[in-house]
Protein 1
Amino acid sequence: MTRKQRRLTLIAVAGIVLALAAGLTLSALRESIVFFASPSELVRNPPPAGKRLRIGGLVKEGSIVKEGLQVRFDVTDGAQSVPVHYSGMLPDLFREKQGIVAEGTFENGVFSARTILAKHDEYYMPREVVDALKEKGIWKHNEGGKK
Amino acid sequence: MTAELSHAALAIAFALAVAQAFFSLWGAWRGDARVMAVGPAAAFAIFIFVAASFAGLTYLYVTSDFSVANVYANSHSAKPLLYKFTGVWSNHEGSMLFWALVLAIFSALVGLFAGNLPPRLRANVLGIQGLIAAFFLLFILTTSNPFLRLEIAPAQGQGLNPVLQDIGLALHPPLLYLGYVGCSVAFSFAVAALIEGRIDAAWARWVRPWTLVAWLFLTLGIAMGSYWAYYELGWGGYWFWDPVENASLMPWLAATALLHSALVMEKRDALKIWTVLLALLTFSLSLLGTFLVRSGVLTSVHTFASDPARGVFILCILIFFVGGSFALFALRASGLKPGGIFAPVSREGALLLNNLFLSAIVATVFVGTLYPLMLEFVTGEKISVGAPFFNTTVGPLALLLVAVMPAGPLLSWKRGDALAVAQKLAIAALVALVCAIAVFAINGAPLYPMIALAVAMFAIAGAVIEYATRIALFRVSVSESFMRAAGLPRASLGTLFAHAGIGLTLLGVAAEGGWSVEKIAHVRPGEAIRIHDFDVRFRTWTERKGENYRDLAAAFDIRRDGITVAELAPAKRIFVMRGQQTTEAAIKTFGLGQLYLSIGDPSPDQSVALRAYWKPFVLLIWLGGVVMALGAAFSLSDRRLRIGVPKRAANKRLAAVPAE
């Protein structure tokens, strides 16, 4: 093999690996990223049925209904609220007025959650929730946020 | 007084770091041995002062001195002693001080062990280490002082976040920091080489042991963190593709690539510029990790905004070192003498392929981790990139990498014999195929884990075959094989363990992903569920009291074939003082598999949500990590690589060492 051929082989192999990585990344970015919406955005502009997305807000006071593993509650950002259905175990800090993020699909005005996130820290607010609440003007500085 | 003295020690360490950086670099530039001699002495003194400062903070924690704001915010006098110690690095200020301590340890070790390095190279390396230390110490002193006093000392502290009150906190951060900061040595060596404008095989031989040390700790740190998350969070997951996790994975991948490319450089005097670039990249990714975690930019914009000085300062450090080193690289790399181009089918060709795949994986993880931040910064749109993204991108690339891995060590340098290697690996391929078919016959199978399983078996069998070939197992008498094994350099054991470890981890990942069983049920006392071949019966509620918490535990009897094999009591742990609770999973190991139970909040009618998993071979995920780290330890103990060994090269004053 001549020097030139060796160099060409090297460049070809590098090209193939990088093209593979780029191709995988681009197709995965199209298919598996999940957008975030606040309850207001969801009501104003409902997504196509079956599309996975995240919503965030506060668990509305007095809205939690539990039947065995089935849980129903409302998530609110102050202006709008959206009913959420979930089946499974709730995180430790799930309670009324707690900020949460739910991932799932929105159909017929109900959000079916597949996962519910609420971090293990009483001060913690998922950042999307903070931003969504700030937008609605009901976020007060120094509320939450560590120290 | 302790706080003030510790603070003063830190300030002195900062001044010493500035001196170390200035005199080392200036001395190297002038070629003045007396000026350069400041470097090792300063590095040692910095270590003493930072260690004293850290000891001071530890003392404040152990004696519960709540007049210090940091102790007040993170400790409590009723906290178990172990957590008073580990509490020191549980928070931002303390962990940054710990970061500086680890850096000081590494710098002092460089000063100690680099005695036979060419003086100029050593001075430049210590100069860069000093520069890094100076920036981080300044960062601590100006924005994250752990010794701030409160005007009125409270009687009691606020306690430590319950999730952190675990043995995991004692091990995970120190291991990870040793890994992160250990990468700084390779970085300093790379910058020093760029400043001098020359580099040769001996350089790679000096850098490799330091990178191995960093890699060893990083591997253990990541594995430990993964196991901690697995048992502590109660979700049964071991890797969440969380940005903070990715921040530790990226330097690990880059360091793995660096270890392999440095090998090519050492043996074949090739891939030099690439190796330098990897050394810069590895520490840059460590710094990026520190920035992502410490600036708070990931978890909450609010923490970032509440103290912008910190985030901006770390960003400046990041830009200075990453930007500076890469600018230097752009200026000087073309001046370095490039190595030759080599045959595609050869050991060095295989190592290059390894580097290509690892870099592609780093790039993919990088995009997945930072794309959401960038998008939000530019357009304000919020997205999340989670496990599905990484599984479909990193997964295939990693499988390809592991699939070609066994061929590497079997190929000879310069020109390999592809056919002979294929023959040797035929047995490994057979093993993989038989295992895959057997598992398919017994369990049926989803495709992806099936492929991963086959690749993992191939990698493990391939690693064993490679070692067996070296000691001529079964071709000569067993006793002679033993003799040969004893005569082999320890590095070949290192290769065996590291490569088999990767295979074991992948095997665990495949088994966990493909054949785990999950059951979620609502149970009352007396009721039972069946999972895998276990009957899990909820007996009763019990209560346990700990030093600063109480557990509300649900006692389960585990029966297999009608025989009680275990009692498990997953619990909700309530920390009275902070009014917080955590989930305590209960885990029982059967062979390499684990039965994992965790519970939700108890309902008023005594019933509870139960989450049960059977995870076959799950322990392999972390055992593989331990095996990999063992491999690194074997390699480190190799005579050729033992720190400070390349005396021959030093005597010849950096004369290029011929490849063995």
Protein 2
Amino acid sequence: MQQKSPGKLQQFFHFPEGDGLATDEFIKGLWRENPVLVQVLGMCPTLAVTNSATNAIAMGLATLFVLVMSNVLVSSLRKVIPKQVRIATYILIIATFVTVADYVIQAISLEVHKALGAFIALIVVNCIILGRAEAFASKNTVWKSLMDGLGMGIGFTFALLLLGTVREILGNGTLFGFPFFPDSFQEWVIMILPGGGFFTLAFWLLFFNGMKARKKDNHTEVHPEKESVEEVYV
Amino acid sequence: MKTGNLWFIFINASLINNFVLAYFLGICPFLGVSGKLSTASRMGMAVTFVMLISSMAAYGIHAFLLWVDAPFLQLISYIVVIASTVQLVEMFIKKFSPTLFKALGIFLPLITTNCAILGLALFQTNKGYNFLESFVFALGAGLGFTLALVLMAGLREKLDFAEVPAIAKGTALTLLVAGILSLTFMGFAGLGG
């Protein structure tokens, strides 16, 4: 697994000056601080456009673009922006990049643009982006913010894809538009309806919580001696 | 015909296509402020108020941008108007009800990043509503948001006393309840005809 060896990777790509490759900033967004599955941010697009895997990827990539660009710009302007108007400035920066993304998607594929609808414009109010600008990019170097944006963006895309694949396979019987089940499969229509979005996300959260709880249990079982020593003292 | 149309827009925005439960707009405060019934209803009212003002402003801005032929400025100007409206409401509430101001806490400035409000402005532009229709649309959306928030808060107050497995506590449980609520609201689908 990638996230287990940031130290080794950093040693491998040893940069003599500055922060090195800042791989840790990149990796934390993928898993440990995943914006959707751990921080539970940016719920609107997560639930609204994940009724198919293609939509999920398009939305994830658009958010990734806006996140990286706004992180880089906010971080490079962090010493210029006055503290009192910083939030308004961040929102303006984000809105500019979202407008760019909106027009680019429209130029690449009208179909995707139609499927995502107003939700591309709604990237502006995605809490993840403003959250990263305020909590990270306004305090860190440009390179670190770039890595942070990339990590968070890819983590977000990954989470959207988790939801999108499950909902499309169960609700439509297809994956990326190709048939996944034999014809006899009866689609679970509810999965592509709004209710299915809530249920799928709830089940993924349950799954990850369960895994975390199990990991914790294993962890305590690894050191039985320590506990027994304490018991003797008690 | 005219009033029937307005009535349909209202029912559509508040019940059939409820902003929270059908469009997934405004999920952040929906999950965040729905812990207590009293806070939830006041939050709903604040959001409704911001929605009404920003909807009217968005109507004016859209007309102006069409006139100067600069549609690419739409998103930026909408978000600026919403941010200033929220600032106004914040000052108003702080002056007249400091307790409510404290209860809403961080979620008051966060109305700015509430997708429901920007979503409302964008939807009414896309659908080409006139001024009166926009107003009714905003009213319906705001009341629908309040209704969803209050229902959720009532359910969660009861759920506090239930015994739930440890892994399901918190967001996962709230999402499951929201899913069931969303299914319930699908029952309104026939209302609009």
